Amino acid sequence: MELYQAKVQKLAASATLGLITTVFLGKTSDLVKLNMEARKEYGIDIKLVVDDDLNTATFMVNDSGILMEDGIVIDKASEFRNLSEKDQLNMEDRIRVMAGSSPSDKLLLLQRLKKKGQVVAVVGASSRDSPVLEEADLGYSVGELAKEASDVIIMGQKSITNIFPILGFGRCVCNNIQKFVQLQLTLNISAFTINYILLLSIMPEPIGLLELLWVNLLMDIFGVLALAQPPPITEIAMDPPKFGEKGFQYLTKTVWRNIVAQACYQVTVVLILYFKGKWILGTNQKVLEAMIFNCYVSCQVTVLINARGIQYGRMENNMFWVLVAAIVILQVAFMEIMAVLSPVGRLDLKQWALCVGIAVFSFPLGWVAK
Fold first, then answer.
1. Which of 169, 137, 139, 125 is nearest to 31 (CA)?
2. Which terminus of the chain has a smaller tally of CB atoms within 10 A, N or C?
3. Do 296 and 344 share a domain, yes or no?
C-alpha cells in the first residue's frame, strides 16, 4: 500500500477494498482529471456528493470527467431527502451528482445504497464527514483530518486518483483469500474423508496426526505466502466483484467444483494405494505408507499451483516458484528424516517419480473443473 501512499488502519479493510461497487467523492479541489476509462474497467460507480451549489458541482463534474449517461443530477439535496423511501430507493442508483448536501444527506443516500446491496466507499476530507465515514463499508480520509473515523488514509498530491489502484489491490486480496480457502478445504476434506472411511472399516489411518500437522504447516506458511504473490495491478484487479443473492461469496460454484474434484481424486488415489498398493507396486508396507503420505503432500502442491494460476508474467511468478521449491525441499527433508527416526520406509528415485506423476495428473483435472 506504500506504493499508493495509503495506510490501512483496520485489517479487515484490506478485504473490503475488493468489494466496493460505489465511491462517494466530496470536495475535488485537489483532483487531476480522472481517467474515466479506468473507472469503466474497474466497474465502479462514482457519485459526487457535495455541499456546494449546483453551478460549482457542475464545474467539478466537468473537471473530473464523471460520466452523466443515464444519470440524475440533484440540484438540492432536500429534493432527495423529501422523497418517500420507495422513491429514494428507485432513483439512488442513477444519481451522479447531489449538490447542497449536508452530512445527514450524505448519510441518507449512503444508507439507501447499502439497503439495495451496494458496497460503498466514502472519501472524506474533514471531521464533518466522520458519521458518513463510520457508516460506510469503507471510509477513506484524505490526509489526517478525519483519520479516526476512517479505515484507510490516503495521502499525497494524487491521493484521489490512487483510489482505483487501491481498490484493485483489495480485489487481489479477496482473490487470494478465495484461493487459500479452496486450498485449505481441499486438504482438510480429503484428509477427513480418507481417515473416516478407514475408521469405519476398522483400519489404521494412513495419514497420522504428525503428517497432517506437517502438511498444514507447509500450506499455512509457504502456501499463504505463495498465494499472496500476484502483483496488485493485474486482470484480477480489473474484475469487479460478483455478488449473488446472499452478497459476495468466497465459496462460489467454481471454487466448490475445484474442491470436490481435487478432494475426490486425492481420496481415490490414497485408498487405491492403501488397499492395493502392495500388489500394484510390489513393495513392502513401510515404503507404501511413505508413498501414500508423499503422494498426498504432492497433490497439495499441485492444488496450490492450480489455485494460483499461471496467468501472470514470468517475472511476477519468480517468488511464487521459489516458495513452491521451498515446499518441495522441505518435504524431501521431512521424508528423509522420518525414514531415520521412524519405521517409515525410504523412497528411491523411481518411487519419488511415481508420487510426482500421480500428483501431476491432478493438473488437467483442475483445468477441467475450472
1. 125
2. C
3. yes
Per-residue pLDDT tens for 266-322?
999 999 999 988 888 888 888 898 999 999 999 999 999 888 765 444 445 678 888
The C-alpha atoms of residue 13 and residue 11 are separated, in whole angstroms, by: 5
Residue 191 burial by Cβ neighbours in a 10 Å radius (0-12, 13-18, 19+) = buried
Asked whether residue 313 falls in the same domain as residue 353, the answer is yes
**CA dist., res. 14 & res. 138, Å (int):** 10
The b/e string for 108-134 (b: 16+ C-beta within 10 A; e otherwise) is bbbebbeeeebbbbbbbbeeebbebbb
Query: How do residues 95-119 score in pLDDT, each as one tens digit?
Result: 888 888 888 888 999 999 988 888 9
CATH number where 286 lies: 1.20.1110.10
CA 210 to mean position of chain CA atoms: 30
Beta bridge partners of 6: 154
Q: How far apart are CA 61 and CA 131, in angstroms?
A: 25
Q: How far apart are CA 57 and CA 348, in angstroms?
A: 74
Task: Pinpoint the alpha helices (H) of the chain.
Answer: 13-16, 36-42, 54-64, 77-81, 85-91, 103-115, 130-135, 163-200, 209-218, 224-227, 235-238, 253-281, 285-308, 314-341, 349-360, 362-369
**DSSP SS3 for 139:** strand
| Interaxial angle between packed helices 314-341 and 285-308, expressed in degrees from 0 to 180 and rounded to the nearest 10 | 160
- Domain holding 240, by residue range, is 170-369
**pTM over cut 0.70:** yes
- Read out DSSP for 260-275? HHHHHHHHHHHHHHHH
- 356: nearest Cα among 310, 302, 307: 302
User: Distance between CA 140 and CA 58 in Å, rounded?
Assistant: 23
Say if CB 114 and CB 138 are below 8 A apart.
no
Q: How far apart are CA 287 and CA 266, in angstroms?
A: 19
SS3 364: helix
